[in-house]
Amino acid sequence: MNPSTSALLMDLYELTMVQAYLEQGMEEPAVFEFFVRKLPARRNFLVAAGLEQVLDYLSELRFSQEELTWLDQSRQVSSRLLDYLGTLRFTGDVESMPEGTIFFPHEPILKIVAPLPQAQLVESRVMNLLNYQTMVASKAARSVLVAGGKPLIDFGLRRAHGAEAGLLAARASYLAGFAGTATVLAGMTYGIPLYGTMAHSFVQAHADETLAFEHFAATQRANVVLLIDTYDTEAAAGKVVSLARKLRANGIIVKGVRLDSGDLSDHARKVRRILDEGGLPHAQILASGNLDEYRLRDLIRTGALIDSFAVGTAMTTSSDAPSLDCAYKLQEYAGRPCRKRSEGKATWPGRKQVYRHHTPDGHLDHDFVTTHDDRLPGEPLLQLVMKNGSRLVPSPGLAELRRHAAAQLGQLPESLRALETMPAYDVRISLALQDLAQTVDRRL
Amino acid sequence: MNPSTSALLMDLYELTMVQAYLEQGMEEPAVFEFFVRKLPARRNFLVAAGLEQVLDYLSELRFSQEELTWLDQSRQVSSRLLDYLGTLRFTGDVESMPEGTIFFPHEPILKIVAPLPQAQLVESRVMNLLNYQTMVASKAARSVLVAGGKPLIDFGLRRAHGAEAGLLAARASYLAGFAGTATVLAGMTYGIPLYGTMAHSFVQAHADETLAFEHFAATQRANVVLLIDTYDTEAAAGKVVSLARKLRANGIIVKGVRLDSGDLSDHARKVRRILDEGGLPHAQILASGNLDEYRLRDLIRTGALIDSFAVGTAMTTSSDAPSLDCAYKLQEYAGRPCRKRSEGKATWPGRKQVYRHHTPDGHLDHDFVTTHDDRLPGEPLLQLVMKNGSRLVPSPGLAELRRHAAAQLGQLPESLRALETMPAYDVRISLALQDLAQTVDRRL
To answer: Residue B387: beta bridge partners?
Structure first.
């Protein structure tokens, strides 16, 4: 059983509601939009991600015979619903912002237009996919913004929340500008460049640290990065220098060392000097160990002599904001716009479009959220990507999406690049949308 | 491709290190232990979970032909390593605490004894599985402790980090004492009881709220729980009362209502009165919406008239502590105990056992962590569960593990049940283990 592709990865109420819809003949087109209600603390923007996986999910949505049999035996559903699920295919339309696009609260990044039962059934998985990758890409982008061009590597699999999170964190962070990942499956699945060094256990498994380095070098040859903090960082750096001479005689170059504990800036300074004085000025220093965008910023600002960084847990879990206040809401059914008005959770009704305006020098200036039919100036951000269940264009490669994300980050005004909360970006609700909300409310 | 079962869900350095081990003939037995270095903020204990998935992973570890072909083409590995991976099976031993056992920092909950390459290869996935479920079970247990016996339901799939996290959060929270989940796949996979109501979109899809309730009731009949906060909570409660009379004539009973926004306590009081006065004293009130153990405690303490609670995002993401400071460390190789001494990350060496002592009235009193060969009084917590790659006993069912977890929570001393940080539980390092650490350090 593969949780990533099972049609039963849904909430029970979706089945219940669809059963009711079918019994009532409610199969007219519904419009659902996915958006974020408000930014997490300390975030000034979000980066849309996960669309590709949503399109895969919608394209491949099938109930297997095993799932149907279990549903039948569980007596959770009617035979009518079972028949419906047995032949279900997603036949709707999807509009979305391209992955890597910067967006803000109240701006839908995905719109699904499909017969009501279909659009309702996919709610949980669509949210599950978009929430996670968008959250991670947005978190990772903050590290990219402060890293000053130094390469960042995803080391987060071990504390990501399960298998799919580990895999998709590699994708979302690469999309946001990371240089690569340690997660091998992400290399195979998405072609993301792979990086890795050695673990402390490798050093410990040898009775002697120098011998461990020598064994590792003999195997790696072209990619020798040695972990030097298992016992005493500077002493190990000295061992690297001594060993490097011997290795050079065998045609092996020490590419670099990794620091993983203690005061990284202080160790880097001392280790840099040891390496330089030992004839290894080209050996690079990689740092890891509980890094996040704040520690990265401090290290960069203070000129730490570190060449690249591995970022793990904080990024893959989005540790300071491990979820988005996101929603997948019905905005229109059978041509009738609607909205919920629950306290603190009211939404703007109807199917929407977002228009973006730039400053003369190409930075983001303000956005308008308006009704789908209201043509405004500016760049429309939602694009039709799936029609009647079929993709309109082949999936853009991850490399292209990554370039798009980089261009988007380049359009951020200076203030929004900050790691602390800044005055909110100017998102305007159009008059047409405000009018629609009033009309909808009067009808209730 | 199924990320949950792919052998390539690992860090690149594991392949690199194994390649070096094979070249050096380092295939002697290695002992790795998984433990937590320190408790997350506001936690006083942890609940071990995820072992079952680790044993599944170890039992089923295989590199597929597709994975081997990709590895070959990617030129990341030697042909010798490829041959090794092609026939790899896990042949080691595993000791562990039973799932549901309460544990504390420095106490290993899992020990793997296997040829070094095998024990090294599985590092990332073992950590990935134990970190997540233990974190979630520990978080969920806090809600269970304050809920005063009222049922708790997992509603967290939509903001769990990916598919596997959604599925395993249902398992970990059920293990910790939740009554069930909304995630259908968890019902099919683990037999966990399923719960669900309706979404706001169901109400919105109807032009009239009462009609929405009526349609839902007609479908559900035996399980009518109506969501009443889409527009105006108390007004909707009034509609439920009116509708209930009509439904009763058709043999349908309104089982309850759900509140999802606003001041839950205040709404519950008003709604309870409306339901009681409307002849629905048996209709229950379910509350949801950004609940965590702190809000639960407040609602319970103030006597909120709520019968059950749905807990979502805060639990599945362990929002205030979305990772554990956990490690999977080499403690012994070829009979030689070892440890790392990295700053702030030093570990106790050697293969270990944990002995637990209780107070006369059956509460936890203190634990001893000692070397594996040191027989101490008390209850030994680590048990042999896998020998030479085969399980010693069939997997205990989730129901049995849940009873074990409940019994463990019952053994918590009063102070450790608090939601705030309390004085740490007494975990003692035995003299034998202290001596071993000194011996190991002298050798370096």
So the answer is: B390
